[in-house]
Amino acid sequence: MPTKPDAEFRIALRESGILTSPRFNKGSAFTREERAAFGLTGRLPQRVNTLEEQCERAYEQYQDAGAKDLARSRLMQNKFLDSLKQQNWVLYYGLIKEHLGEMIPVIYTPTEADAIAQYSHLFRKSDGLFLCIDRADSMEKEYLAQTSGREISLVVCSDGGAILGIGDQGAGAIRISEAKAALYTLIAGFDPSRTLFVDLDVGTDNEKLLKDPLYMGWAEKRVEGERYDEFVDKFVQLVRKHHPHCLLHFEDFGVANAHRILDRYREHHAVFNDDIQGTGAVTLACIMAAVGVTKTKLSEQRYVIFGAGSAGLGIVAQLRDAITTIDSDVSKEDANSKFYLVDRYGLLKESLGSDKLREGTEDFVQADKEWEDVSTNEDGGIDLLEVVKKVKPTVLVGCSTQAGAFTEEVVKAMYAECERPIILPLSNPSKLVEVSPEDANKWTEGNALIATGSPFPPVKKPNGEEYIVAECNNALIYPGLGFGAMVAMSRTVTDTMIIAGARKLASLAPALEDPHGALLPPFENAFKINTEVAIAVAQQAIEEGKARVDWSKEDAEDKVESCQWQPFYGTYVYDEAGDT
């Protein structure tokens, strides 16, 4: 596939075959010579367009897809871009790359959540691989039918258990897998012809979907337990058997399965869970930048994490591991003691009992005797405000999807004990954010260091200056993490590889040059950022001996850049023995 504008490609498709191939279709950009060679003369209007002209036309159509209602407008634009992708990959990626900041919220969060929720009603054309637990015996045949003869570098899969803050969406999982794969291409350079996105359909507990006569998935209750584990394992072993050097990305699995699946396979293959490791990595980078502003250390912070699901636990694990890696004098136990987790039952403490303490939280459960002097609520739990008053945190992270949970009283209690509080309300979509940046800024007299999970406009400081709110978006780092691991053909994705990527991202933060600047670089620079991250990750994989390549750390930059796919057409030559 094209990586440079002047590249030449030999292609065996002709006539309608090439016009209906999103991989090779150029549409009106086929040259006169190409039209003659591929049997397209008379099948296209006379004018030959450049990619730039096609993007201009497509952008007008994209704008026309809008409506007065913003949510409806974005959904229509999402559908338009989806249709464009099914026709012409180069035009799709070229258009979005030109309007990155504007279109990412349309093809990803928050709009993609609406598209996923309405998947069965918006369905027009299938794309990707659908593997159903009810057909587990034929899984290998179905997998090979989709991948035979293809070089696969990236597999993204989801079981739809916990989609983008909207929960169990069953077969709609295929769209989040597709969106993640598209972002790998768009902002890291994964060749889209070498990516595979998968729906692992194990049923759904979403009653609305089960009662919907148009639901596209397996309309049975979600399978759990041994049968579920066997199904997932069969899939993973198929990937390892047929594509042993690929990156396997797990996306939006429910909290009960996400950590367990990652832990089961992370020592045996290059696997990655964005909800756990991606969220943890970008949050780590954000906090690294913030402590750079405050001239302190990660190990000197006190962390309150509101929300103990996959994202919250991923953040805690990544921060804890970074503390012990960067500061070798801090033990794992000492690092654990710096974290205070709060969920719907309040502070995680011993007396909650095993039925209310999720697996994976054991290292962070507080001893009851340390909290005997703190007021409890009517259910005997300790609320966020009381935790903040006692802990006096320097870092407050929200991944709870409880809108407004960081109240004025909570924020002011934190600010009373911390001159420059680090406040990260990360829940998506934006309507579920724990506190608006405007309020967090106002309640801390403009002194908070703020980042959010969704894009927000700048806020005004008391002196009238604008403060750019960093978007703590996983897409600033996870494509680079995965691409670096893939280029190095790493056997696994290690914690230290992830920390290397987070360090690189943090080093690019505007706040390190200007204390009032954003904690992360702007999303518009995502391709350059992820390229830098990929280089750092590949170098770390080589240093650790995890890479399966015969080149050195010094070669990483050239190797990463030479492997990147970018949206250019190149020149096509008809060849019966060429690509199809």
UniProtKB/TrEMBL annotation:
Recorded coiled-coil stretches: none
One GO-annotated biological process of the protein: malate metabolic process
Binding locations of a divalent metal cation: 251-252, 275
Binding-site residues, (S)-malate: 428, 473
A GO CC term attached to the entry: mitochondrion
UniProt domain Malic enzyme N-terminal: residue ranges: 85-266
Domain Malic enzyme NAD-binding as annotated: residue spans: 276-542
Cofactor(s) recorded in Swiss-Prot or TrEMBL: Mg(2+); Mn(2+)
Gene3D superfamilies with a match to the protein in the record: Malic enzyme, N-terminal domain, NAD(P)-binding Rossmann-like Domain
UniProtKB keywords: Metal-binding, NAD, Oxidoreductase
An example molecular function term from Gene Ontology annotations: metal ion binding
Cofactor binding annotation: Divalent metal cations. Prefers magnesium or manganese.
UniProt keyword Metal-binding, yes or no: yes
Catalytic residue list: 108, 180
Entry similarity comment: Belongs to the malic enzymes family.
Entry protein name: Malic enzyme
